[in-house]
Design a protein that fits this description.
Mean pLDDT: 91
Strand content: 5-15%
Pfam family, one: Response_reg
InterPro entries: CheY-like_superfamily (IPR011006), Sig_transdc_resp-reg_receiver (IPR001789), TCS_response_regulator (IPR052893)
Number of helices: 5
Protein name: Putative methanogenesis regulatory protein FilR2
Structural class: alpha/beta
CATH class: Alpha Beta
Order of helices and strands: EHEHEHEHEH
Strand order of the largest sheet: 2-1-3-4-5
Largest sheet: 5 strands, parallel
Keywords: Phosphoprotein
Radius of gyration: 14 Å
CATH superfamily: Response regulator
Distance between the termini: 14 Å
Length: 146
C-alpha cells in the first residue's frame, strides 16, 4: 500500500464506497481519505478543524472531487485549491455525475486536471476508476515527486 493518500471528496456514501471498491478492484493500493463535504475537504488539505494536527507537507497524491457537495460546492473547493500556493498544482480530477456543460467548462476554467463523468454501470465504473488510477498514480509524474 502506498503511503500517499487519495482524497475522495464525495457526499454520497454509496458513491464513496463504490469508488473505493473500484480502486481496490484495480489494485490501487493508496489509502483513500473521504471528505463528505467541501468544508471537510478544505480542512483536510489546509490542516484546519479536525485535521489541524495533520502534517501539512503530506498532501494527497490525487484529489477526486465531486461537484454537488453540501456546505461548499466542488467548484469552490477547486478554486481554493488552485488559489493556494501549497496546493495550486495538486492533481485534481472532477469525478461527477453532472452532465451540465457549464459545470465541465467552469471546472476546466478553474484548473481541473480532468473531468470524468461517473459511469452508472458498476463494471464501467470499475474500468473508469482503474484507468484513472493507472494514469494519475502510475503513469503521471506528480508535481511533488514520487
Amino acid at each position: 500500500m502506498s503511503d500517499k493518500a487519495i482524497l475522495l471528496v464525495e457526499d454520497n456514501p454509496d458513491d464513496a464506497l463504490l469508488t473505493i471498491e473500484a480502486l481496490e478492484a484495480n489494485r490501487i493500493g493508496n489509502k483513500v481519505v473521504v471528505a463528505r463535504n467541501g468544508v471537510e475537504a478544505l480542512d483536510y488539505l489546509f490542516c484546519r478543524g479536525i485535521y489541524a494536527e495533520r502534517n501539512a507537507a503530506d498532501l494527497p497524491v490525487l484529489v477526486l472531487l465531486d461537484l454537488k457537495l453540501p456546505k461548499i460546492d466542488g467548484l469552490e473547493v477547486l478554486r481554493q485549491i488552485r488559489a493556494d500556493e501549497r496546493t495550486h498544482v495538486l492533481p485534481t480530477v472532477i469525478l461527477t455525475s453532472s452532465i451540465e456543460d457549464e459545470d465541465r467548462l467552469k471546472g476546466y476554467a478553474l484548473g481541473a486536471n480532468s473531468y470524468v463523468r461517473k459511469p452508472v454501470d458498476f463494471d464501467d465504473f470499475v474500468q473508469a476508476a482503474g484507468q484513472l488510477g493507472l494514469y494519475w498514480l502510475v503513469l503521471n509524474e506528480s508535481p511533488f515527486g514520487r
